[in-house]
TrEMBL record:
Classification lineage: Bacteria, Bacillati, Actinomycetota, Actinomycetes, Kitasatosporales
Domain FAD/NAD(P)-binding residues, every copy: 7-338
More details: The active site is a redox-active disulfide bond.
Species, as recorded: Streptomyces cellostaticus
InterPro entries: Class-I_Pyr_Nuc-Dis_Oxidored, FAD/NAD-bd_sf, FAD/NAD-binding_dom, FAD/NAD-linked_Rdtase_dimer_sf, Lipoamide_DH, Pyr_nuc-diS_OxRdtase, Pyr_nucl-diS_OxRdtase_dimer, Pyr_OxRdtase_I_AS
UniProt-annotated catalytic positions: H455 (proton acceptor)
Name of the protein described by the UniProt record: Dihydrolipoyl dehydrogenase
Subcellular location(s) of the protein: Cytoplasm
Annotated FAD binding sites: K52, T150, G151, S152, D321
Amino acid sequence: MSINTPDVIVIGGGTGGYSTALRAASLGLDVVLVERDKVGGTCLHRGCIPSKAMLHAAELVDGIAEARERWGVKATLDSVDWPALVATRDDIVARNHQGVEAHLAHAGVRVVRGSARLTGPRAVRVEDVHNEPALGVRDFIAHRGIVLATGSRPRMLPGLSPDGRRVVTSDDALFAPGLPASVLVLGGGAIGVEYASFHRSMGAQVTLVEAADRIVPLEDAEVSRHLTRGLKKRGIDVQAGARLLDAEVLEDGIRARVRTARGETRVVEAERLLVAVGRAPVTEGLDLAAAGLTTDERGFVAPADWSRLETAVPGMHVVGDLLPPPSLGLAHASFAEGLLVAETLAGMSSPAVEYAAVPRVTYSSPQTASVGLGEAEARARGHEVEVNTMPLTAVAKGMVHGQGGMVKVVAEAGGGQVLGVHLVGPHVSEMIAESQLIVGWDAQPSDVARHVHAHPTLSEAVGEVFLTLAGRGLHQQ
């Protein structure tokens, strides 16, 4: 049996894996990328891209209702052609998939189909090749290093078994048949909130259950409050501080018992139960022990050197959802991790990923977008802070949109550096880029206040908040 000897072996073709492979190949390294399914991973095929396509359709549906109810445009929604909607979504995914494959091919990355198993610190065996049995088992030895990028899968609660129809995970919710008339969503993080928002836009009765005392619990508390207010205004039953006691699958749906924050037991009946309680790293079948690696108690593979994302085994690196916090489990963070690891393997000096400066977005209606520290987190870290908050409806464009929302800035007291920016409202996913630079470059409010924001825009509210913090307040009282 011949042994292939590339410079780098990447196991997993999701966002972290293929970005590592592309960058490493662009630096002249010989790269093998092993993927047992499709390159692009969960984000492209089951998560980020198809879900945002569906949320765009939901936004169009919401726009029809707003046109009729708020603006006097007598538009009505006839129906949602589910097969047509799905076809458009799938076309977007397919074209992106073709693009990733073309990029890899153009870069000279060798994509190997199959399941990878570590056989040593620099050795990988690939087997179980789908639909290509003639290729058999192949062995590889990496000259420079191996990158683990095997991703994650949805976590499930004990006693629940997804069937793809009545009980679904965040991975298969988009592919369940048709649009349900009612949904119980378990999990009030970004994924759960997005699915709750989508189904409500499509006319479903939605109950959202989160065990923590507020939804999107990793965000600033004011973000949670504004988002909760916005979701409730849309008719979503938000139950924070609540827990699922049990659930029964019926012929036409599910019946669940939920313990509310007040200690009451509620019975919730819905056509579908959607479980979005987080994701778990995938390491089964890798045989980490053969390379001298172990996982932590949560199943993550922790790096010994975060500046290089290198494990305790030299030449073994980790990117993406296999990393524990402070990594964020976000596709754009994985891209940055892939660039870092590829450049490290090429012998370059590359800046470590600054996770505090990575933006976090929830693509619901209303949207949330944040970067940096929340107020409570900043105080807990010993910062003396100054905070300024402004409702989006305090600017004309916010009134036009009529969806509420806010801008909140957390800065060091006395005009010091900006520690965090937090947005809630329409289109804030497109507004966070400016704040990412502000936080990432350690700017102070006075640095931002000298720049002029266009009027009338939603981003004008961001400028107003910084003007006030810099002692140059104009419209904000």
